[in-house]
């Protein structure tokens, strides 16, 4: 394996950990809303943070907590129910996935969807990953038609 491949794998792992931690922070934020800075501080001591992309974690938490109403409105157009009726885990995962599809064009749509589905399989309800996949696939078709 080349140094570039190792570096790329490590980068992917760091981003995946940042998403996992952002999921946990956004779940916590939905249960007990607070300023995003408090979440960043609270999670800075998390066990996985040392191996995570801290800046990406911070970006996800800050951007999603600051624009959740707009993200929810957009999510609602691809869902069969209002976002407020979602389980907080699936809701947080969909917010992360939609944020990446909308705002992080450096993240290929397939990566955004795959990472979201992986989180939903690990932390969500039994078949929650199927719902996450379907919603984010609709979002990707609308937001990134040239990639899809």
Give a verbal description of the structure.
The protein is mostly helical and 148 residues long. The chain has a single domain, classed as N-utilizing Substance Protein B Homolog, Chain A. The protein is built from six helices and no strands. The protein has helices at residues 3-31, 36-43, 54-76, 88-103, 109-123, 128-143. α1 (3-31) packs across α4 and α2 packs across α3 (54-76).
Mean pLDDT: 94
Summarize the helix and strand pattern as letters: HHHHHH
SS field, number of helical segments: 6
Q: What's the CATH architecture name?
A: Orthogonal Bundle
Give the CATH H-level superfamily.
NusB-like
- Please summarize the sheet with the most strands: none
Q: Count the strands?
A: 0
**Tally of domains:** 1
**Secondary-structure class:** mainly alpha
The residue ranges in which pLDDT falls below 50 over 5 or more consecutive positions are: none
Measured between the Cα atoms of the first and last residue, the distance is 30 Å
Might you state the CATH topology name? N-utilizing Substance Protein B Homolog, Chain A
What is the alpha-carbon Rg in Å?
15 Å
State the name of the first-level CATH class: Mainly Alpha
Name the helicity range: over 70%
């Amino acid at each position: 394996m080349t140094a570039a491949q190792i570096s790329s794998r490590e980068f992917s792992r760091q981003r995946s950990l940042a998403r996992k931690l952002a999921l946990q922070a956004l779940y916590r934020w939905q249960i007990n809303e607070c300023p995003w800075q408090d979440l960043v501080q609270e999670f800075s001591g998390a066990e996985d943070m040392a191996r995570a992309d801290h800046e990406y974690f911070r970006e996800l938490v800050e951007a999603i907590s600051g624009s959740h109403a707009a993200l929810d409105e957009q999510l609602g157009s691809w869902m069969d129910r209002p976002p407020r009726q979602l389980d907080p885990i699936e809701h947080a995962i969909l917010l992360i996935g939609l944020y990446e599809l909308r705002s992080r064009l450096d993240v290929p749509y397939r990566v955004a969807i795959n990472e979201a589905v992986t989180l939903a399989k690990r932390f969500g309800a039994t078949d929650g990953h199927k719902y996450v996949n379907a919603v984010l696939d609709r979002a990707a078709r609308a937001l990134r038609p040239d990639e899809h």
